[in-house]
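Suppose you are handed a protein chain with no further information: no name, no annotation, nothing but its sequence. What can you learn? This example shows the usual starting point.
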Amino acid sequence: MTRTKHIPLIKRPWFAFLSSMRFAVALLSLLGVASIIGTVLQQNQPQVNYVVKFGPFWTEIFGYLGLFDVYASGWFVLIMLFLVISTGLCLWRNIPPFIREMKSYRLNAAKKSLAAMKHSTLLSGGLTPEIAERYLKVQGFNTKKAEREDGSTLIAAKKGAMNKWGYIFAHAAIIVICLGGLIDSNLLLKVGMLTGSIVPDNDSLYAKDFKPESTLGSNNISFRGNVNIAEGQKTNVVFLNADKGMLIQDLPFDVQLKRFHIDYYDTGMPKDFASDLIVTDSKTGKKTEHTIRVNHPLTVDGITIYQASFADGGSDLKLKAWNLAGNSRTPALMDAVSMQAFPLDIGEEEYKLEFDQFTAMNVQDTSMPSEDKPLQIQTAINDVRSVKQNKKFTNIGPSIVYRIRDKAGQAVEYKNYMLPIRQDDDYFYLTGTRTGLEQQYRWLRIPTDSNGSIDTFMAIRELINDPAVLKRIIGNAAQAAPANIRGTFAQGAEHTLNTFRNGGLVALGDDINARTPEADRETVWNFSSRIVYSTLNTVLDEAIRTYNLPEWQDPEARNRFLIHSMEAYTGLTAYPAPVLLQLSGYKEVRSSGLQMTRSPGASLVYLGSVLLVLGTIFMFYIREKRAWLLFDQTGIRFSMSSSRNERDLQKEFPKHTADLETLAKDLNH
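A reasonable first move is to predict its three-dimensional structure. Written in structure tokens, the prediction is:
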């Protein structure tokens, strides 16, 4: 019976493949490509940001591939794991030969092999082995002498054998760095999710609603999570992204945001932001106060707290609300809080009012032409302050973003500025609308009076929708017309004003196009628009007298106000909201975005970096050289070799040869 031949482990095909340089280089290349993706593509952003940027189709694909969290994705972790295995097997295979090579003096070098070396020569007689050995030691070589059976004497010398440690350190650095990355990755989290012991939560909004299987204990060895804390609030958890859900990570302490500070550049970009924190230990109850800012984190119980971002933390808002279903010029007053939702009942219709972020500062570049940058500073308002002395960048004041959602779940987003914005020669209250995040805002401009208020426009809107007022105005205008056309004039004016009242200039233009031959449309349009303008002019006079509103000193400014009012009324008839909101006051509350990490693998990464530096130094700055002196009956053979840097030997070998020749001559003399 034949016995199966035993194949050593390091000679098996799978071992050779895993420990090969080609396999390791391929893995390093994949990691390099993945790192480029992780650098170019912003990681761990809200899902909505990716949908806006790439669309739902590609967002789904990129999310499935893990490109939004590359460094914690399963395939990235798997590549690192295989790289650790490959590099470890490579070291296992090569360290023993390296150690033997570093210890070996190559005393078995034959005479022929020495003579065949590129740097080899015969020396003149008179040099003894003892003197030659002493010379090599003085030159920094470690030497060893061997007496051979044929009567010859070989002196083998070497220096720079530590060069081999460079290869060992470099390979060990890769292993240590990857192990650090694996420890700080979601490897254990992924395993827990695969086994079912950890289940991401897709539905809960608040930390208290997360189930135990979606909560990680404070003894978790590594994590990276985020949390937003409003001023005056505290937390003892952070939120972790996990696939399409979230996990809660308990902390061994409470963090309270005492105050948030922020400074701006001239362009309105954040210059510096910092958080004053109160940290309370959960076990001892000890409180400590710290201030963290960008690039100046805080480490508590092995958990590092970074200043990551800032946002609105739920500011108190005061708003004026005009019911667009009615015609009253008097708004209802409303108190609200940003980042929260409120029910909105208008008549029999039920809506949901969802406030988004409040922004106290909106900086615009006023050096650009108005047609390129329409929003400019309103210098007459005290609350607006300049943020750059050269008047290039200015703050146009606070704004609020909100959504109104109907019963069917359909929502329209609005962005309203608190203060009037100057465009060309006049000031407007701006409100923008859009139905999707990918769309640009469509702006409605409501002209303001000399007090910077839209009260005059709202008074005009109230009176023009009063049938009694319109009837009186039409009657007065008809009396000024010839007697034979008064009835026709009154009927036409009433039709024109009713059409304008219901749909603005757009409806008036559509009505003229439908009822008038094409050749007469321009004439009819000019006549109808003059009727509307004259009516608004009369209504404006009545509104000023009735409600004690400010008058215009400049006739041109009054004329522009009337034209802008016609346009604003037209836009308001198509306004998609049942209510018009205007921000009238606020008390800002800021929120600090903190990132908290526990990363014990970071110390391994630092250690690996040190090993990598040492490996580079050993490989490139320590040169291994070997020398032999063979003394036999035919003479003295001197040879040198180097595994690298043969160019250095071209200078060193002639020098050593000359020194040995000189030493031999001196001894003979």
